[in-house]
Amino acid sequence: MAALQVKPTRMELSNLKKKKKVAVRGHKLMKDKRDEMVRRFIIYVRRNKELREQVEEKLGQAMQSFVLARAGMGNADIEEALCYPARPAKITVGTQQVLGVQAPKLDLVAGTDAIELPYGMANTGAELDGAVKQFSELLPLLIELAEVEKICNRLADEIEKTRRRVNALEYVMIPQFDEAIHAITMKLDENERGNLTRLMKTKEMLANK
Amino acid sequence: MANDFHEIAMIGDRDSVLLAKAAGLAVFAETDGAAAARRIHRLAKGGVKVIFITEPLFAQCGEAVEQYKRESVPAIIPIPDSHGSTGVAMAQIKSNVEKAIGADILFN
Prior knowledge:
Structural class of chain A: mainly alpha
Radius of gyration of chain B: 14 Å
CATH architecture of chain A: Orthogonal Bundle
Largest sheet of chain B: 4 strands, parallel
Distance between the termini of chain B: 48 Å
Largest interface: A-B, 59 and 41 residues
Oligomer: heterodimer
Number of strands of chain A: 2
Helix content of chain A: over 70%
CATH class of the domain at 8-82 in chain B: Alpha Beta
Number of strands of chain B: 4
CATH class of chain A: Mainly Alpha
CATH architecture of the domain at 8-82 in chain B: 3-Layer(aba) Sandwich
Structural class of chain B: alpha/beta
Distance between the termini of chain A: 52 Å
Strand content of chain A: 5-15%
């Protein structure tokens, strides 16, 4: 490891000691942050997996009913029925902080209790109604999935960054400081001993005169 | 445009997205990865908050997805299309776990 290039002076020594103190404190904080992030990440990612499984299953069902509806009604009729614009689904978007990580908070506004079908009943089959209803019921789940998945993505990134910082502090910065402090202390001690012997020698020479 | 502004959009092949239209999502039928990526950029600039995209297309426009991954909105979420799930989304969760923890603790 490349040692820190420093002048062996008392000034540098005290500076280095201060820097090391900060680094050690930073390392501890960063480590705590990483541990807490990992704990929350595990909770979120479990939820994410659960939601994802549910969504995949239910969406599969909805798509299947849609395919059935399509088979029963014919392409032109379906497209005609669905090309009318429906009332847009509204969500409120806030921001939430998960340990300093910004993530959107999504809430579906329009209640799904009264599902409006955007087409007339005359030319459409019941299968289509069913498929649309299934999908509308799925919407809150999809929104939650979006929120949780976003949090997971960002947390994973942040955890990776924090872990790098922790490791850099633990295995690079702090050992470098230690090494430099050690080198300076040695050098200073050596100078001190040099001085002492010189003094003793001079004293001896003076006494012998 | 202001009147029928959608905050949730869905991109996918025609069969998969028609259903979402009836539920009040903005729907864009794309079959080509590059076109889908362009669509994602346009939607993100237009202030759409959540973009659902079918898994095959999601896999094709990885670059656009990566770019918005680091921002808080929009959330780009892969969903299975009418042919069922391909496992891309689960693989993403898995890679997240591996990235964060270092080992896969959920799927085994």
